[in-house]
Design goal:
Blueprint lengths: L2 H6 L26 H11 L15 E6 L5 H13 L4 E6 L17 H17 L1
Parallel strand pairs: 1-2
Length: 129
C-alpha cells in the first residue's frame, strides 16, 4: 500500500466525511486527535508501507495484478521501486481484456488466471527457497 493510502486511514481533522453521507467506514473517520499526535501517527504510518523502506536487502518478490485491480497503479509503483533497488521481481500482470482479474481474483481457483498465479507462485518459491 502506498503511504498516502495508509495516511488516509488515520484519524484527523481533514478526513472526516460530512455527517449523514454514510461514508463513515470505520477507518478512523470521526476520530479527532491533536496536531502533535497526528504528526506522530503520520510518521509512524511509514512503517506500514513497504514502498517507504525498500532497499537492496529486500528479498525477491512475486507480484500479481491486473488493470482491473483497484491497486494496479500501486502495484506498478511497488514493482518499479523494487527494481530501482535491484530487488528481483517476478510479476504477472494481466491487461483489461482478462475479465476474471478484478480485485482478489487470485483467490478464485475457478479462473484460469488464478490457476496461472498458483503455477507461477510454486515456480517462484522453488526458485528462491
Amino acid at each position: 500500500m502506498s503511504l498516502n493510502f495508509i495516511r488516509m486511514l488515520l484519524p484527523g481533522r481533514d478526513n472526516v466525511p460530512p455527517p449523514g453521507t454514510g461514508l463513515g467506514l470505520g477507518l478512523g473517520h470521526g476520530l479527532r486527535v491533536g496536531p502533535g499526535r497526528l504528526d506522530a501517527l503520520q510518521r509512524a504510518a511509514g512503517f506500514l508501507s513497504p514502498i517507504e523502506w525498500l532497499d537492496q536487502r529486500h528479498p525477491p518478490v512475486f507480484i500479481t495484478t491486473s488493470e482491473r485491480d483497484h491497486f494496479y497503479n500501486a502495484n506498478l509503483n511497488f514493482i518499479q521501486r523494487l527494481r530501482s533497488h535491484a530487488v528481483p521481481v517476478d510479476a504477472l500482470i494481466y491487461d483489461w481484456a482478462s475479465a476474471n482479474t478484478e480485485h482478489t481474483w487470485q483467490q478464485d481457483c475457478r479462473y484460469p488466471e488464478s490457476q496461472e498465479v498458483y503455477r507461477r507462485l510454486q515456480e517462484f518459491v522453488r526458485r528462491v527457497a
